[in-house]
Backbone:
């Protein structure tokens, strides 16, 4: 499976924070925002990733990750000259996707899945190559999102984009899995009244064909949209609380790469040695030592 991280947009809701920097590079507590969606792709086992961003922001994001090889990833970049809707990512990334399934995640969406991650991976794998899988979560303000309506048997009846009178409290979150035909379907879409291709229209094509699987995220799973000043602050405070309580970092891409075998011992130690002294380097060194000792103790 391939992964697309859509890190475009003008960041108008975060103005003036985004006058000189991409919102995806703004800090969410102790890491750039883009670390969080990238880590979600990695946790789903995805290593071939296309990052789509603006002409101004792409060079800065590329400075951050390069080709991704240092993390055991293969990262490519694509420029979106102006925002024309989420589904355009599949048109821009058509050659990258090829004949593979693809996951798209929005660059300002942060997920904390905990023990539910393995179940979510099973939900996606169950329909790989056949159906699209999207996720929904109960929210207080569904009119801000694409709203998923269910019947009494929890079957999906409809998906509406930002309805004035929502038919449910379940919002479609910024994490989508599709079979290879998503490119063809995205190309068939017509712009909405606001002049953009709509992800809800794409999902409705799969719904009409009875090829859409909707997974409801239960209580205990956190989904944060960090695209406004309030939500950006909320996300940072959430990460701070969890990390300080547990002593473990959320969305530490280096730790994920090491624990999942994307980086070996030598690569991890070389990476740590390349960092400037500070709390992040100390944390990675601690993770390396604890995991290294456990791994070899278990092997013996």
Residues:
């Amino acid at each position: 499976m391939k992964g697309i991280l859509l890190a475009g947009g003008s960041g108008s809701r975060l103005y003036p924070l985004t006058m000189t920097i991409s919102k995806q590079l703004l800090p969410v507590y102790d890491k750039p925002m883009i670390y969080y969606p990238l880590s979600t792709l990695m946790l789903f086992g995805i290593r071939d990733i296309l990052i789509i961003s603006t002409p101004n922001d792409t060079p800065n994001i590329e400075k951050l990750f390069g080709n991704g090889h240092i993390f055991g990833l293969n990262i490519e970049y694509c420029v979106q000259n102006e925002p024309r809707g989420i589904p355009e990512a599949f048109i821009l990334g058509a050659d990258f996707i090829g004949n593979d399934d693809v996951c798209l995640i929005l660059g300002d969406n942060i997920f904390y899945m905990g023990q539910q991650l393995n179940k979510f991976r099973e939900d996606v794998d169950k329909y790989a190559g056949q159906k699209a899988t999207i996720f929904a979560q109960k929210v207080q303000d569904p009119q801000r999102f694409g709203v998923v309506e269910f019947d009494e048997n929890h079957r999906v009846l409809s998906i509406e984009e930002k309805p004035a009178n929502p038919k449910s409290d379940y919002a479609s979150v910024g994490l989508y899995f599709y079979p290879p035909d998503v490119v063809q379907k995205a190309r068939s879409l017509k712009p909405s009244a606001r002049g953009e291709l709509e992800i809800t229209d794409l999902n409705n094509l799969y719904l009409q064909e009875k090829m859409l699987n909707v997974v409801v995220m239960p209580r205990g799973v956190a989904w944060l949209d960090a695209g406004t000043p309030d939500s950006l602050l909320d996300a940072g405070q959430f990460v701070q609380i969890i990390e300080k309580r547990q002593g473990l970092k959320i969305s530490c891409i280096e730790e994920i790469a090491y624990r999942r075998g994307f980086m070996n011992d030598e690569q991890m130690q070389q990476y740590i040695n390349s960092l400037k002294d500070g709390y992040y380097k100390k944390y990675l060194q601690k993770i390396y030592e604890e995991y290294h000792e456990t791994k070899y103790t278990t092997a013996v």
Q: What stands out?
A: Residues 279-299 form the longest helix (21 residues). Residues 264-299 form one domain.
